[in-house]
Amino acid sequence: MTDLTTSASTRVFRNNYLGHLAYLWQGKPYVIPITYYFDPTDNTIISYTSEGHKIDAMRKNNSVSVQVEEIQSMFNWESAMAHGTFEEPEGSVAKQKLHVFTEGIKNTIKRKEHKEVEFINEFSSKLYSRGIPIVYRIKILENMGKRRET
């Protein structure tokens, strides 16, 4: 196993859109799957959610981590982790970030999976029926990763 360089770790984030978000809630760590977009313009991870325990937890403790992997086999994989801070943009900034998220994921899916998607519900299970979406971003402070190749 070898360490990934910062640029290789960033590449893993850039080339994917499914990952795991880690945060603390009432003193316990939680890790949940998320759909995300890595925005290279400001080195952030953009996602969205609805009101609930995840958003409450991140509002109380904004220190979070995101982990992403590319697994070819048990002996050929890369895993990247970013430590950062939760931010909750509002108003027109939130709307603009949701647009960046949607377009970014559509482009990632097209490039990686050679599929065309038109609507956000084709790649994210969150539906607007649970209320107005809450856009959030993770400002990456540090990223790292591991690789295994045989």
Account of the protein in words:
- There is one protein chain.
- The relative contact order is 0.27.
- The protein has helices spanning about 5-15, 55-60, 90-115; strands at about 1-5, 20-25, 30-35, 35-40, 45-50, 65-75, 75-85, 135-150.
- The model has no long low-confidence stretch (mean pLDDT about 90).
- Strands 1, 2, 3, 4, 5, 6, 7 and 8 form an eight-stranded antiparallel beta sheet that branches.
- The chain has three helices and eight strands; from the N terminus they run βαββββαββαβ.
- It is globular.
- The chain has about 150 residues and is an alpha+beta fold.
Our estimate of the beta-strand percent is: 35-45%
Q: How far is it from the N-terminal to the C-terminal residue, by CA? A: 9 Å
Radius of gyration: 15 Å
> Element order, helices and strands?
EHEEEEHEEHE
| Shape by Cα distribution | globular
Structural category: alpha+beta
- Tell me the number of strands: 8
* Largest sheet geometry: 8 strands, antiparallel
Please mark out the parts with pLDDT under 50 across 5 or more consecutive residues, or reply none: none
Count of DSSP H/I helices: 3
Overall pLDDT metric: 91
Helix coverage percent of residues? 25-40%
